[in-house]
Write a structure and sequence with these properties.
Blueprint lengths: L25 H11 L10 E5 L19 H9 L7 H10 L6 E6 L5 H11 L10 E4 L3 H14 L8 E4 L15 E4 L1 H10 L10 E4 L2 H6 L3 H10 L6 E6 L4 H10 L3 E6 L9 E7 L3 H14 L4 E5 L3 H13 L4 E4 L5 H12 L5 E4 L12 E6 L12 H8 L9 E7 L2 H14 L4 E2 L10
Parallel strand pairs: 2-7, 2-8, 3-5, 3-6, 4-5, 6-7, 9-14, 9-15, 10-12, 10-13, 11-12, 13-14
Antiparallel strand pairs: 1-8
The structure holds adenosine-5'-diphosphate (ADP).
The site of adenosine-5'-diphosphate (ADP) has 16 residues, from helix 4.
């Protein structure tokens, strides 16, 4: 069972200094997030359920048993360490597994259990007595398709009769072949080719269609049209599932064009806040002074880990080599790394192999490393006009209720301009940022 990991390589990052000012593409960000985050994000907001079908009962389950899954599938779920359904799963799964099938549009932030939900639904709906593709899942990129395939393979570990096939770049099928696998996971372009040009499988026989990462999909040129082309050939009885981390107008329009009579469920993102965060600043005269401040702070980071944000790739790499020379174990993540390299840096950091991660804006938002207790702004975040970028500040420093614990933010200020930025941030959030003397860092604990 399962799917062999396809061959092919991940794309490289850019290689100019300017790249670091550019945020990662949505697809890259989504991928990094998936790889870095190994656990579920627990969101305290309530799920909103909007139903288009007034006859369908609204219910939710508190256990996986209550879903009456095939025993081997339930075993796979438990083997993955899932004890109880996540918030989104509680609500989505009864609809997804219902008979007759229900269509769904679901939105919740990354890390809340969407993938696990639809993969479970996909695996439950396979009829293993039939040897052709019945379930089709579209992902925006090669890497994201592989991530989903890996979850499916894990969950289906004990369902040895379910076969999965990737339809992604690098995968070849001989002409005139008919696919026998039950599940196809692929990118839109490759799926269009396989299904319509080469007729390796029949879209009208698909009973479950999943569109994952819809917001990333529409951000990618051509994917939306290809998704429509695929969609047009599906049977009217095909169950449609549509998942997205965000839900703006574009996504909503796409969703409504794809999914007839959906149950719509939404879990709003928890707001980040600076509550429970102690904010300090350190007065420095030069970049060397900033370095000394960092060294002193490094000496007292006894619990958890620290992240240091620099303005440019040059500063980040300077700081990283200087700290390394001084015998500190630091990790460096900046824009010139390939996606593979970024993943491996983040993996090592998450495992605690390094206590400090130095980075540029590539990591300013979207990626949470939960064990980080100290965030240092080696350079304060500014926009293109060099004014305070309060939103980025909040993303770097802020926490949501899920972390509960206290955090510490340290801002290094080295001239009038950065002092002005600091003041702007202070007044924007209405929270005082205290002066810290790093010769006497004991006071921060
Ligand atoms: P999303 O698709 O919303 O980003 P995922 O399905 O990838 O979320 O889940 C995020 C993380 O939480 C993954 O590491 C996944 O293995 C884990 N996870 C998912 N569902 C559960 C659950 N019910 N219990 C524990 N962990 C879970």
């Amino acid at each position: 069972n399962g799917a062999a990991t396809p061959t092919g390589s991940r794309s490289a990052g850019g290689d100019t200094e300017e790249e670091d000012k550019k945020p990662l593409s949505k697809a890259e960000q989504s991928l990094l997030q998936k790889v870095v985050r190994k656990g579920l994000i627990v969101n305290k907001n309530d799920i909103e359920v909007q139903r288009k079908d007034p006859n369908s009962p609204l219910f939710s389950v508190k256990t996986f048993e209550a879903l009456h899954l095939k025993p081997d599938l339930l075993k796979g779920v438990y083997e993955m360490g899932f004890n109880a359904p996540s918030k989104i799963q509680e609500t989505a799964l009864p609809f997804l597994l219902a008979n007759p099938p229900q269509n769904m549009i679901a939105q919740s932030q990354s890390g809340t259990g969407k993938t696990a939900a639809f993969v479970l639904a996909m695996l439950s709906k396979v009829d293993t007595s039939k040897h052709y593709p019945q379930v089709l899942c579209l992902s925006p990129t090669y890497e994201l398709a592989v991530q989903t395939g890996e979850v499916a393979a894990k969950m289906a570990r004990f369902c040895t009769d379910i076969d999965i096939r990737y339809a992604v770049r690098g995968e070849e099928v001989p002409r005139n072949t008919k696919l026998k696998e039950h599940i196809v996971i692929g990118t839109p372009g490759k799926v269009v080719d396989w299904a319509t040009k080469y007729k390796f499988f029949d879209l009208s026989k698909i009973t479950v269609f999943v569109l994952d990462e819809a917001d990333v999909m529409i951000a990618t040129q051509g994917h939306q049209d290809q998704s429509f082309r695929i969609h047009k050939q599906l049977s009217p009885n095909c169950q449609m599932m549509f998942f997205s981390a965000t839900y703006d107008k574009d996504v909503l329009e796409f969703a409504e064009a794809i999914v007839p009579n959906p149950v719509i469920i939404r879990l709003k993102r928890e707001e980040e806040s600076l509550d429970n965060i102690k904010q300090y600043y350190v007065m420095c005269r030069s970049i060397e002074d900033k370095y000394n401040a960092i060294s002193n702070i490094y000496g007292v980071v006894t619990i958890g880990q620290a992240m240091i944000f620099c303005d440019t790739r040059k500063t980040a790499s300077w700081l990283s080599s200087k700290m390394t020379q001084d015998g500190h174990a630091v990790a460096l993540l900046s824009g010139e790394l390939t996606v593979d390299q970024r993943i491996s840096v983040l993996d090592r950091f998450r495992e605690g192999k390094e206590k400090v991660l130095i980075t540029t804006n590539v990591l300013s938002r979207g990626i949470d490393v939960e064990q980080v207790t100290i965030v240092v702004n080696f350079d304060l975040p500014v926009d293109l006009q060099r004014r305070a970028d309060c939103e980025t500040y909040l993303h770097r420093i802020g926490r949501t209720g899920r972390f509960g614990k206290h955090g510490l933010a340290i801002n290094l200020v080295d001239n009038d301009a950065s002092m002005a930025v600091l003041k702007e941030i202070e007044s924007h959030f209405g929270k005082k940022i205290y002066l810290l003397n790093t010769d006497d860092v004991d006071e921060i604990e």
